[in-house]
Amino acid sequence: MTTTTAELTGEYTIDTAHSRVGFVARHAMVTKVRGAFNDWEGSAHIDGTNPGNSSARVTIQAKSIDTRNSQRDEHLRSNDFLDMSTHPEITFVSTAVEQLDDSTFRMTGDLTVRGVTRPVSIDFDYVGAAVDPYGNRRVGLEGSVAINRKDFGVTWNAALEGGGVLVSEKIVLEIEVSAIRNA
What is the pTM of this model? Predict the structure, then answer.
């Protein structure tokens, strides 16, 4: 069964059990460290007829950062990086949506990290829509955006003996969404 974009119109809740908010950072100038946030929630309004009327909101609990290394995760939660005791949440609130082609949408919004809010634009690929075995209408989107962590006040670093730094300024945010239309 083919779904038209008009059929997607509605209010959605992001199914975080089948979605991911992750990131990639270069470590010691030679490798990438990947991580994700395990505790977050989000919602969206999709207007399939006029995508410009669509919107989204995501709230991430900073303490849920997970890079599969507890010592590194504790350092990322500290004042050196996310300062989660002062800024427990990372948020994104959309301000505009535009359709770039048949399956690509640019969502612009305000990203707040460590109490600093900056505009970002994320290109999302529409992966598809389906009705799951429980009768829920699902929509899938995937996107990513590179940000400079220093723009958000995340400035800690350590110089390497041979030159360079321990952690890249560039962080790539990766978003994979499965959203369920509300009844």
Answer: 0.93
